Amino acid sequence: MTEIEEAVAVCFVVRIDDESLGSFSGCDGLGCEFTMEQREEGGNNGMVWQLPTRIKYSNVKLTRPVTRESAKITAWIAGMASGVTRKTATIEARTLGGTKIASWELAEVVPVRWSGPQLSADSPKVATETLELAHHGFLTPAR
């Protein structure tokens, strides 16, 4: 009997192509939604056909405290000033011990938004940053 590992992730390691952006403490928005079209069939009053038409992928928001790795994000975004190049992103959910629980590969990723920390001497709290990514879907991992 195999033991099932619980999906309790404490960090998310992110790579853009082969460049590491480091680890993040929060990952929100991994998902997709099918747009459904309804069609009524003549003479069939018992149901309405639900037909999937398009698939929409939500933006992925990654958050973490500001670290030395934060410069990797700003360097990536600054490099896009001369032209946007879509890349592949890999997000790995890991345990406290560093064991990979699951991973997702996102196709044709571009940064949508980066939010740096709000700095104020009046309210000392952890400086955080947020990176938002748009993508064109999930890639199937090679077997």
From TrEMBL:
Superkingdom: Bacteria
Species of origin: Umezawaea endophytica
Gene Ontology terms for molecular function: structural molecule activity
Lineage: Bacteria, Bacillati, Actinomycetota, Actinomycetes, Pseudonocardiales
Pfam families referenced in this protein's UniProt entry, alphabetically: Phage_T4_gp19 (PF06841)
Name of the protein described by the UniProt record: Phage tail protein
